[in-house]
Amino acid sequence: MIQRIQTVYLILAFVIVGVLPFIFPLWTLSDGKSYYFMQNQIYAILFGLSTAITVYSIVSFKKRQTQFVANRLNIILNLILLGLFVYHSLNLSGETVSVSEKGIGMFLPILAVVFLVLANKAIKKDEDLVKSVDRLR
User: Fold this and answer.
1) What's the domain range around 38?
2) Which of 76, 84, 87, 128 has the most CB atoms at less than 10 Å from its CB?
3) pTM for the full model?
């Protein structure tokens, strides 16, 4: 159901974790080369899982509780990904010759978490609306 606002939020989260990592590098190495998520197997797996869970959540629009749980799992996955990025960036900052630049790709999990939280708020609002209508019957 595209007309529901949580589907729009989930599509935006899908674009953030499924499309934008191919465009924006995570960081730029000291020799000037861009470092993308595909160059590290763990990052590729975590971005792939996050994308798959987002697609599953979009497809399961009829089961609001399943969608809610899948979004929570996706939030945890993106926070783990963000933690790995922070850990790696703290290790990058210790270079003595030249400092590597952090790219915008490191902040993509933060944006994904924001849209997933907004989607969960909208799902919760829908669930409360359905429960209140059932009470009136």
Assistant:
1) 5-128
2) 84
3) 0.86
